[in-house]
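To illustrate this point, what follows is a protein record of this kind.

___
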Amino acid sequence: MTFAWRFKVVLADKKGKKDIIDGGEFKNCHAAQLNDAEYAPIFIGVLLFLHSKQIEAPVTSTLAAVGCISYLWGKIYLPFPAQVPGATMRYLSLGFLTHELYKLMF
């Protein structure tokens, strides 16, 4: 967001700022970034916790990484159904991570 949009907003006049912020492309990128900001701390926290307990979850960590990346860039650059596989991978990895934590606790 900073390099793609914020510099444009800072350098634009009042009308240009409003046009940029109200534009569909800006809103789409902003929504994608906010969605990623919601999921990233969960994945990082749980994956670091599993790593500290020396629990390997290669499929889960791969799904989380690929899902986050493909969702974000699919939402920003491609039409609607492109982000669905990335979102599905994130949901599956959250389920697998929950299962790993459950196994650890019980």
Notes: The mean pLDDT is 93. The chain is about 85% helix and 0% strand. Residues 21 and 86 are 26 Å apart (CA to CA). The first helix runs from residue 2 to 11.
